[in-house]
Amino acid sequence: MVVNSAYRRNSRIAYKDKTQPLAVGSCGSYRLLTRAVLPTHWQRGRPDYQLLYVAAGKAEFYFGGEKRVIMAGSMVLYRPREEQKYRYYGVDRPEVYWVHFTGGDVKNILRQYGIEDAVQVIRTGIMPEYKRIFTQMIEELQLCREGYDELLVLLLRQIFILLRRSLASRPKGRLRYMERELLSAVKYCQSHYNEDISTEGLAASLGMSVSWLIRSFREYTGTTPTQYVRTIRIANAQNLLETTDLTVSEISGMLGYSDPLYFSRVFKRESGISPTEFRRRSRDGSSI
Question: Are 199 and 158 in contact (CB under 8 A)?
Answer without folding.
Answer: no
